[in-house]
From TrEMBL:
Entry superkingdom: Eukaryota
Protein name (Swiss-Prot/TrEMBL): Uncharacterized protein LOC115622959
Amino acid sequence: MMRRIDVAQLQIMHSLSTSDIYMLDLDINCQERIFDYLTSGDCIHTPQTCLHCVKAFQDLSAMNDGKIRIDGSSEYFKSQFLLFCIGCEFIKDLFIDIGDLSHFLKSLSCSERNSFFASLSKKLKSMNNLEQVQFFLFGELHKTWNMELFEESLLSLKELPKLRSVIIDVDGCSVKNILHLKRLEKITFRHKVSLYDLIGCCKANKNLQALHVNKLMILAQTQLTDIIAYCNKLEELHFEAEGTDYADLARLPNLKKLVVSATSCGSLFELFKALGKAQQLQYLPIIGKVSPDDIEEIVGIKSLRHLSCCFSDMQCIEQLSSLTELEVLEINIDKCDIIPPALLNVLKACKLLRVLFIQGPVWVKDFLNSAREVLQEVRNPLEQKPLQVKIVALDWFISELEDNFLVASIQRPACYDNDESPPQGCFNFKFKF
């Protein structure tokens, strides 16, 4: 029978080394409390040597929220990997920095590295609660890194019942083993991937709802629209690719969110026109500037709830008044230092607008006063919350404004800090969303 040890005794144990404590002397409540008195290193090593404390450690560890990051310097990386090994069956979200992993393995022999990947594969296979896995490369790979061993370990994910999201940002990593995953609902490739492989991933995952591709290679005899046949449930698409005509993407039957680059893509005019006919798109962030012709088609998408873009012609802003279902509007103003008065007409027409974000820098004081007057005309503060306005502004003496109709948060341009007035040349400072 196990001997009970109270909290007072635990405090005495705090002065003892881990080797002086017989862990089986502790009842289950004290096993949980013991971790309050151990160093971070001992917290990890204790469950490794005492299986009786594994459950208590898992309940108290950082994996309580189901997330773990394996990255950092070699010693920290080792500690995080040990945490992963102890609680892998409870993890829901796994993040691994492949660059840090490669440097962690550099001191191991070839056979030891093979053994490590075998162990990693075994642990991955046991992660029955894993919902999302992320592989990133923030630094550089060590020269001893074996990409093929890593890619083979990805096969261990194929039978996991709850895995729904995979994010890969590792240059040079093949996605061929991702083709064996059949239950994914979200795929994100931030490294370069061929359209041929992307089509294979879509074909294998019939329930795919979100697809993000940052660097897409469209090879001969393939088109981005080739994914349509395999993406009947796709709601969110983010791509950057060279091309001339993506109008067929509007045929995706459930597409709600589309993020496109107006700089890397060819003409998007036909795409916007087709989306206007479909009338199902709700979220449209556009990277880069849109032309007046594009705006004419965009305002035809009456279903839009969220629009984000930069105008090549500020006169186009007034056309947004026809998007009466808008709830969020983000615009970039980089050719002038004032907010176009036409934006007031947008506020008047778009009565459902909740958030207005203006990237400047611009002068805002007169605009805010005028905006408040417009909102007082068209809004009932008893039925609607105040409009949230976020602006990068040149009015360095203003930080916040708030009343029943408008809540404004004013951010100073990053190009000056403590000056009493904006410096010359600041007006055309470039900002990114």
